[in-house]
Amino acid sequence: MRCAIYRRVSTEMQKEEGFSLEAQKLRLEAFAESQGWKIVDDYCDDGYSAKNMDRPALKRLISDMKNQRFDVVLVYRLDRFVRSVTDLHELLKLMDMHDIKFKSSTEAFDTTSATGRMFITIIATLAQWERETIAERVYDSMLKRSEQGKRNGAPPPYGYDLKDGKLLENKEESKWVKFIFSQYRTHGSQNIAKKLNTRGVKTKKGEIWSDFSVRYTLRNPIYAGFLRWNYESVSNGQRKKTGEEVVVPIDQEDFVVLIDKKDFDEVQKIMKKRSQMAFRSENHYPFSGIAVCSKCGRNFTGAKRKRKSGGEFRFYKCQGRFKFGTCDMQSIAESSIEAAFLNIIEFENNTTSTLTTKENKIDYDIEVIKEQLKKLSDKKERTKDLYIDGEISKSEYTKRIDRIKIEEMELSALLDKQDDEASQNELEDFLVQIKEEWYNLADETKKEIIQSLFKTMTVKLVEPSKSGKVPVHPVVKITDYQFR
Q1: What topology is assigned to 160-277 in CATH?
Q2: Known catalytic residues?
């Protein structure tokens, strides 16, 4: 009888004896030999969950099954093959249609009789029921613990340390938590972040503070003695969650409350009021978000102030200094950046400009890139399946997803570059027109031009500004730039 063996592992932990791909192969070969079967092909899925049938080797097996390349499919164990009852029924029906048998080498599962088919279906049903029941129990258990004021794990919040399952006050961090809450009454989150950074204070992860991390701290009810569970941040987009957020008093006798409940509630009201007062500026600053500080690598943002003599003074501020307090770059007049920008648009003797020589020629196969992105998307879904199945930990899931995202971003960048590539001659002509018409253009038009052409533009201070009766603007130079 012609035999096809199918093997699968989904995680590192399954490389133990009896589960590894090599161990499965040895046992399947021995079993086939004992039955007098001839192995005609070996189908192997490495790193795939059995939650569904979206597996390359399994797809190939199904294709060969339709072509009747073998008479029996041999697996080490049923859960190496499928876990879903629906998938099992579909495969059994397909096997029956093409007169293909199924056999497990370690279990009494076969499809040579009606009783065998019934038994294997019942076992698969129980396996799926067990998986879904475990998932429900885990959620219900975590919900119950949270409602009782008990933590469900996770790292300790800023201001506390975790010891023997209890949150203990971290004296050094707790003073900064109190500082954040007291400052917020009269200062914004961005201003508070800057103050913390200038004092050398780091977050729990050892990173610098941002307005988001300050607001996250201000919203955490743990400081008032309340435990929050099933809370989802939307800083990086909406994320689905099951059930409602739970906020209850924490169940710990020696827990140290850092912020009075009345003060905490008052801060929440202030935050809500300020968010409702937020508005979008209609001012147009061409280099805002594109110009980058050569000292700290952070973006410049545009601003203006009224002159005593009338009119307004437009300038750019380094976010490293004014938002995070980690840089000493002075404010740069807009006219200084404009002069530096126009200075690099030069074409002499019909030679390639200094701008265009920085633009590398793109020569990539778009279809190959799209196919790689599709594979990464499939890989991401498989990783999610492994996590849902409980076959990888949350930390391992996060590591894998992060690696996939980095690969996706790199490939997407290549695709964008390919799509947006313009001819060098067209770019040169366009830049010449910009230089000639720059001072006749409206600020909004200038912004559209800069934002559409450049990703970044590094600005270096050559000569600082000079104050006095006749102030002198700083002299800067653009040392590097990247096209979109």
Answers
A1: Hect, E3 ligase catalytic domain fold (3.90.1750)
A2: 10
